[in-house]
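Subject: design request, 581 residues
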């Protein structure tokens, strides 16, 4: 039995409002027996989705109590992820996966079935029961609205939930599809004796298939009873007239009226017990296809592997992303080399004279002095260009990574996905890009210019760390942002400020340098790389063209690592926090 006692939800009023807070729900009390299919109806904005979220534990009520099978959901932990199925209004599947892949990945994230003999039969059963068997190979992107809703439902059936909450899975469909999905919900309600299925809907047209109907109005419960008594209660001829009728009294009056009469209507609900009987019958059915106990969650590493495998599949199929990554991987190092073309000659000449006394050479040859200045500018510029382009690639890797799939993440967390598993999968996925982009950039440029001064390994390490730092920070921004657009803009600003604030082009005033540098990854990678040349002739040349103080490679590596840690902490906190809106 699902029970609510005077449940209320009060939230801060929107900015600019005269009140301090608003009540989204007030004094909602209900009892829903098991094996029952209930519809929540009401005009737009009356609190249907809010009530569903409170029952699901996505939003916690500020007043009253909720009970499931005599467990107080406020006192004890929320429902076990395997006990709860929540189908949101929006699509919770990746566009580039097929229907079968989506269900299989949901199963792998939420159950221990993959690898067992039960996996295939269960997958087939879910495809069949939701009417998706013929669409198993079709990608989500091309599914119709109704098919996406069936898929949303299918993703929740992998665990045999006993509380299945559906937000508008029947809305906006043609009458035939609406009837089919309602019938499916009814079958699901009967399939498991412990199960309660609740569906939010706008439609008042086909409520007969439900065991009960709950009407919400302005955050209040104003009716909960059998569908056939709805017209009687509201004294209207057709159910479709109920919304108009509601406007004739205010919500408080409707609620008071309901409080007086509810025992009569609820008693009728419990007395008829058609649902419980049908459920008992379904349970004894010898053809019942699978056990109905909730599934156990898989291990964290198993979730990491599933997420990683899924992410690579999506990446491989996203031709635009693959093309962009390849273009940057090949194009950016070439760009650096093109800028260096004019300077390669003095660079090589200076390279050949490294063994000689550079000061003596300078005094002796005016030409050499000119070469040295030019070479210093080229070396500093090349390193900075490498670093900035690597950070640009890093921001492109990470900016949309979490914000772009936020609602899917929220749904999967509710289904038992570990935030740490999610974070590790992102680190492993993006780590490949960080290594490929920065190592290739460093090695390619070094080869073409005939060897930049200093230890190649130190410069490569700093490039990798600069890329890792920017990737982590942008991933953190992505996890904390409400939309992918916001995350992208913030990440672009961050990269845009790297060059002017790095001190490589213009020297910042001392007081500003100390305040800004800690935040500029490009400064540390550039500065540490230049300092790593301190035992070569180039260091003097580089010092001549920059007044910015240069730091040791060790300090640079330490600060960049700190950026990585901060970025990953932001990512963890941002991913763990709830962002359903
Ligand atoms: N976090 C929030 N802060 C402030 N107001 C909110 C919040 N969440 C929802 N609301 C408001 O609460 C009201 C009820 O929202 P809800 O989404 O539950 O309505 P609904 O009945 O499901 O509507 P619809 O049928 O249009 O989906 C709306 O006016 C909405 O703007």
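Subject: RE: design request

Done. Sequence follows.
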């Amino acid at each position: 039995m699902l029970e609510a006692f005077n449940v209320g939800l009060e939230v801060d009023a929107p900015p600019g409002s005269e009140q301090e807070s608003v009540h989204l729900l007030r004094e909602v009390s209900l009892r829903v027996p098991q094996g029952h299919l209930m519809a929540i109806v009401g005009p737009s904005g009356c609190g249907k989705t809010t009530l569903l979220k409170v029952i699901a534990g996505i939003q916690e009520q500020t007043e009253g109590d909720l009970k499931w099978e005599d467990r107080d959901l406020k006192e004890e932990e929320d429902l076990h992820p395997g006990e709860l199925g929540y189908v949101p209004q929006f699509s919770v599947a990746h566009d580039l996966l097929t229907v079968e892949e989506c269900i299989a990945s949901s199963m792998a994230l939420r159950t221990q079935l993959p690898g067992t003999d039960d996996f295939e039969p269960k997958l087939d059963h879910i495809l069949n029961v939701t009417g998706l068997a013929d669409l198993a190979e079709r990608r989500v992107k091309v599914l119709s609205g109704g098919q996406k809703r069936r898929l949303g439902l299918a993703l929740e059936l992998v665990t045999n939930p006993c509380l299945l909450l559906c937000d508008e899975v029947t809305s906006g469909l043609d009458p035939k599809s609406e009837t089919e999905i309602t019938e499916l919900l009814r079958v699901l309600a009967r399939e498991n004796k412990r199960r309660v299925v609740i569906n939010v809907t706008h439609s008042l047209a086909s409520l007969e298939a439900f065991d009960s109907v709950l009407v919400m109005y302005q955050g209040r419960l104003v009716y909960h009873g059998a569908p056939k008594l709805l017209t009687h209660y509201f004294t209207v001829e057709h159910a479709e007239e109920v919304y108009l009728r509601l406007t004739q009294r205010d919500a408080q009056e409707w609620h008071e009226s309901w409080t007086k009469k509810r025992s009569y209507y609820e008693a009728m609900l419990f007395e008829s017990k058609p649902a419980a009987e049908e459920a008992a019958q379904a349970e004894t059915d010898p053809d019942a296809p699978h056990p109905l106990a909730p599934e156990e969650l898989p291990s964290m590493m198993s979730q990491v592997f599933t997420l990683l495998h899924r992410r690579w599949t999506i990446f491989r199929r996203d031709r635009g992303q693959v093309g962009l990554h390849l273009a940057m991987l090949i194009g950016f190092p070439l760009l650096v080399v093109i800028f260096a073309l004019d300077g390669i000659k003095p660079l090589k000449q200076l390279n050949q004279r490294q063994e000689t006394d550079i000061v003596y050479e300078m005094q002796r040859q005016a030409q050499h002095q000119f070469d040295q200045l030019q070479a210093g500018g080229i070396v500093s510029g090349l390193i900075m260009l490498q670093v900035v382009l690597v950070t640009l690639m890093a921001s492109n890797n990470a900016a949309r990574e979490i914000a772009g799939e936020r609602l899917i993440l929220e749904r999967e967390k509710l289904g038992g996905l570990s935030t740490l598993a999610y974070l590790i999968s992102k680190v492993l996925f993006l780590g490949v890009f960080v290594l490929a982009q920065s190592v290739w950039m460093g090695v390619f440029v070094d080869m073409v210019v005939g060897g930049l001064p200093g230890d190649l390994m130190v410069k490569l390490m700093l490039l990798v760390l600069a890329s890792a730092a920017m990737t982590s920070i942008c991933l953190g921004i992505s996890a904390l942002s409400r939309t992918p657009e916001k995350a992208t803009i913030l990440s672009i600003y961050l990269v845009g400020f790297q060059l002017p604030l790095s001190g490589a082009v213009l020297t910042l005033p001392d007081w500003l340098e100390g305040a800004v540098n800690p935040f500029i990854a490009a400064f540390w990678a550039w500065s540490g790389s230049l300092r790593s040349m301190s035992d070569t002739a180039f260091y003097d040349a580089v010092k001549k063209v920059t007044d910015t103080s240069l730091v040791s490679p060790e300090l640079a590596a330490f600060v960049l690592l700190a950026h990585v840690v901060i970025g990953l902490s932001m990512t963890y906190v941002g991913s763990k926090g709830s962002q359903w809106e």
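The pocket of adenosine-5'-triphosphate is lined by residues 11, 24, 42, 44-50, 202 (CB under 6 Å).
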